[in-house]
TrEMBL record:
It comes from Rhizobium sullae (Rhizobium hedysari). This is Serine/threonine protein phosphatase. It holds the Pfam family Metallophos. SUPFAM superfamilies: Metallo-dependent phosphatases (SSF56300). InterPro entries: Ap4A_hydrolase (IPR050126), Calcineurin-like_PHP (IPR004843), Metallo-depent_PP-like (IPR029052). The lineage of its organism: Bacteria, Pseudomonadati, Pseudomonadota, Alphaproteobacteria, Hyphomicrobiales. Residues 6-169 form the Calcineurin-like phosphoesterase domain.
Length: 214
């Protein structure tokens, strides 16, 4: 049996992330881990989170896929345009800069700029924020994929696949509504860090969740 593990918004919470990875490795000997984005901002150790993710799984048995979130998008915009810097700092960027000792490392900015916006397998679509069902998958805009807000009670057919995303935090998450699962349970706001476990051979939603208190 093969598994995919989707990890929700981390926001600089390094220790819950370390514990979550330990829990995932205890669950299975191999698999795919999809990190849903928002690795930085607000939490205490954005630099440590990026260091860990950039170093990779360290094992050929595990494939790690890191998607871009809106906070990575904000950071990149702030470094490309001084006019957007205050907006980023007010939304958690200050804590990120402090974790770097004042300036985000250039190689970390490059890594963030190259992150994919979507991961699709046989049964699932993984994005940070959401998708617009009225448009084909190949026509989704980067803005929507990292910034869209999906109503709590909304679901549709999603091209015959199950949609997994984060971005919109709630202490009620992780929650599955129809063909959609939101795994942002507000770790940086005092909620747990959540992970959805998917059986790769089975269509549909998660078979269970793993949670680590933030």
């Amino acid at each position: 049996m093969n598994f995919t593990f989707a990890v929700g918004d981390i926001h600089g919470c390094l220790e819950p992330l370390r514990e979550m990875l330990d829990r995932i490795r205890a669950y299975a000997r191999a698999g795919t881990v999809v990190f849903i984005g928002d690795y930085i901002d607000r939490g205490p150790d954005s630099k440590g989170v990026i260091d860990l993710l950039m170093n990779g799984s360290g094992s050929q048995s595990w494939r790690w896929i890191c998607l871009k979130g809106n906070h990575e998008d904000m950071m990149l915009r702030a470094h490309a345009n001084d006019g957007e810097r205050i907006w980023w700092l007010e939304n958690g960027g200050l804590e990120t800069e402090l974790s770097y000792g004042g300036k985000v490392a250039v190689n970390h900015l490059l890594w963030a700029s190259q992150l994919p916006l979507m991961h699709i397998d046989n049964n699932r679509i993984f994005v940070h924020a959401g998708v617009v069902p009225d448009l084909p998958l190949e026509m989704q805009s980067p803005q929507d994929l990292v910034w869209l807000r999906v109503p709590d009670d909304y679901s549709t057919d999603y091209w015959g696949k199950h949609l997994c995303h984060g971005h919109t935090p709630s202490m009620a998450n992780p929650m599955t509504v129809g063909n959609r699962t939101n795994i942002d349970s507000g770790c940086v706001f005092g909620g747990p860090l959540s992970c959805a476990v998917f059986d790769d051979s089975r269509p549909g939603g998660p078979i269970e969740f793993i949670q680590v208190q933030g």
